[in-house]
Amino acid sequence: MKGIILAGGTGTRLYPITQGISKQLMPIYDKPMIYYPLSTLIQAGISDILVITTPEDQGAFQRLLGDGSQFGIRLTYAVQQRPEGLAQAFIIGADFIGDSSVALALGDNIFHGSQFSASLSQCRDPQGGIVFAYEVSDPSRYGVVAFDESGQALSIVEKPQHPQSNFAVVGLYFYDNSVIDIAHTITPSTRGELEITSVNEAYLRQGKLQVQKLARGDVWLDTGTFDSMSEASSYVEVLQKRTGIIIGSPEAAAYQSGFIDAEQLQILAARLDKSGYGKLLRNIL
User: What's this protein's family per the entry (predicted)?
Assistant: First the structure.
């Protein structure tokens, strides 16, 4: 399985800050935002990852992440010339995906929780599509999934005015290789975008979409606004200080997934001693 992080977009909800820096490079407490989805894909055991950025921001992501070798993975880069929908990632990344299955992580989504981490290993060979749903108080902001009495998904609607449930589809998606063909056949929405919901609807019509509800205790944070970024930073700060456990660290995820060994992690920790980040990495050892 291969992975894609979509880190494009204009970040208009975070103006004027994002007029000078990509949203996904902004800090969530002690790490750049993109570290969190990168860690999620590494936790899922994915070591070949494509980062899709805007043309003007690609160099900054490359300076930050390099080729991924420090994490024991391979990172490559592609450009999204215009933000024309999440499903555009599968068109941009078609050659990268090749004959593989693929996971798409949005660059501004953060996940944390033991049950969530354990469930990632079950998503590596999807026979269709696998998405996650999280109960929210304001579902009309998201793609909303409705379930029947047995818990099977009935419908998924993008940003509905009258939501049929409070379960939002979160920014992490696992698909088999047919997602490339599906992405090429869907038409733009009234917003002029290739919606990820249209991809999910196609799998749902085929009876090949599995929707997993995130367990109680698992956390999903969408950091697309000033308030949600601040809340996410506070969450990470409090949890790390209280427990000494690092959240959203690609170094930690790489070590736990076996992509780097203890000696390599020790070297990475030594480079980051002055920031305090290195101490949290040493706690893993």
Answer: Belongs to the glucose-1-phosphate thymidylyltransferase family.
